[in-house]
Specification:
single chain; alpha+beta; three-stranded antiparallel beta sheet; 5 strands; elongated
């Protein structure tokens, strides 16, 4: 069992891991050892996630989530398989934790009387400055 938040607990059977060869530099180690991890988590069918969390997770995951609702995380930062497994799992847990936080609703407020007055005074001052830029009157 993987504890994400006090209310969200994932079963390890829901997470599927496959090991592939990492790309990039690394010499012989990269060419012969499958150290990169591809972690797959079916968020759409997971009983641990509510609809609200799933919706926020879909937005946060972006391209990492397939159209079927499966989150795919590739980890190949480290040279060892175990470190890459831990990194991929940590990234998944962090993503779900972020999705579990419900955004605070904005309560609309109205401007105060003082702020309205300051705004209008500023407009009046600006208007006088611009008025003074015109051509001088020829009333002599």
């Amino acid at each position: 069992m993987i504890h994400v938040t006090p209310s969200i607990v994932l079963d390890e059977a829901e997470i599927e891991e496959s090991f592939v060869r990492a790309s990039g530099p690394g010499g012989q180690n990269v060419n012969k050892v499958s150290t990169a991890v591809e972690l797959r988590f079916d968020a759409q069918r997971s009983p641990a996630l509510s609809e609200a969390v799933l919706g926020r997770l879909r937005t946060l995951a972006g391209r990492r989530m397939t159209s079927q609702g499966v989150i795919v995380i590739d980890a190949q930062r480290f040279r060892s398989r175990e470190q890459n497994r831990a990194d991929a799992l940590d990234r998944l847990v962090t993503l779900i934790r972020q999705a579990a936080i419900a955004p605070k609703l904005r309560r609309p407020t109205r401007p105060t009387l003082g702020s309205k007055k300051r705004r209008l005074e500023g407009k009046t001052i600006r208007s006088r400055v611009k008025e003074g830029r015109g051509r001088p009157s020829t009333d002599s």
